[in-house]
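Record 1 of the preview.
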Amino acid sequence: MARAASARRRCGESRPAGAGAASRAPRGRCGARCIVGWRRRSSAGPCRVWRVEAMASWVALSSSVVEYFEGEDFYRCGYCKNESGSRSNGMWAHSMTVQDYQDLIDRGWRRSGKYVYKPVMNQTCCPQYTIRCRSLQFQPSKSHKKVLKKMLKFLAKGEISKGNCEDEPMEPTMEDVVAGDVALINKLDIQCDLRTLQESLESEEKKKGRSAKKAESNELIQSQHPEEKLGSGEPSHSVEVHTVPKPGKGADLSKPPCRKAKEIRKERKRLKLMQQNPAGELEGFQAHREPLFPPKAKSNQPKSLEDLIFESLPENASHKLEVRVVRSSPPSSQFKATMLESYQVYKRYQMVIHKHPPDKPTVSQFTRFLCSSPLEAENPPNGPDCGYGSFHQQYWLDGKIIAVGVIDILPHCVSSVYFYYDPDYSFLSLGVYSALREITFTRQLHEKTPQLSYYYMGFYIHSCPKMKYKGHYRPSDLLCPETYVWVPIEQCLSSLENSKYCRFNQDPEAVDEGRSKEPDRLQVFHKKAIMPYGVYKKQQKDPSEEAIVLQYASLVGQACSERMLLFRN
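->
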């Protein structure tokens, strides 16, 4: 593969002489910013170790450093199983700001570990449309409420529902998430920056029975106790569904409520007087009369999503559930203390649910795709209390982890990356439950950070039945693959029934407003210097280089191309 070969190149580039060598970069005569304090590495040996060390220093210059892999790759599709039908563009993100990633996912990109990819929508076998739920207006459906009530019954009384579970995992399999990228990334000769963490996990796995460290006090915990609810954002109002009961099972709510004889007599009197005075001379009487259908008491109003999730449990409840949000990158002490237990849940999930052999769910795979992240941890004063970046949302039942949601908290959204759970608790429909908890979490973060209001569910694949369920979390929008504007999913479904690939924006004159308009302003890192592409291209003799850089610029857009550093050899 061309991109794999490019990543395996050996090089005689320079490396930093010290950790602070590149704190500031003076600008040279050509307009490039030169990095001082670098020394030449011996030409012997591969450049893998150098690349990792150098990238750490490059972050000091720019928080987003990416390495784009030219061309487009064909590989096996994890959805329709076509051996060479899936096609995408990709880049390795050595480091990335949350704003840059927010802008990228708003242009159809998505990450798997540090690998960031964008499907070639009009050529891939199963077009993948970015989908987001408007969490503030979200209303749980009848099936969503059933899942929440099932959880409450289990926690309160230990009741286990019989029959088929309605679990709809946010990402059915690891293969569906990363498709053929697993094989590709394994071929890339790039060291994972969680190598030390991975080694420590492997050593921890051998030491059975080692006690976990106590979680720190600043860990975000959500329990079922109502006093610990963080806030509801903008309350949603679910629709009350009236059903006709069986004989002897209560009132028929589809009919008007029963009324007292006194109330009926008043109504008859009012109607009689109205017939005698058609001109409307009874304002005084009407103002004091009781309404025909008295308003419902506040206690009878439909419950919000928060009310359903945080409903009070009896003191003698059978089980206790807590949801803890721990930072996964850079790994917090809470994350390190629970990583072995989390990995064991993931391993069982892959073996039991997806029938993987015992040797396939490796520690390396777990750390690379579910723990490693290019996102920089950011804690601005006006941001959420937990900050921005990558996190694991751990579900603790009676003191043990039963499920984990991998999420990114970004300036405008909570982005779901992956979810896995202990197969012993499949009867709780944890895939649906976790999605509802993540929507609730988004609304809670909105209380402190008003601009954060969306819940991104990854990709919606209309041609794949097991991925269409994401459209059930409404109101939701799909991203137009040509103009990158959001369109309500209801307006897209009819088009998708006729064609796998669709332009959702109905304005034929509309264009991509964020497209690359000035490629010469794109930032390039080349030979120890940062320079605009206008300077870089004058130094190049390879005619194919321009096509590669321009392709990258068109995919990431003007704003990201000016902020992110594109590493070129």
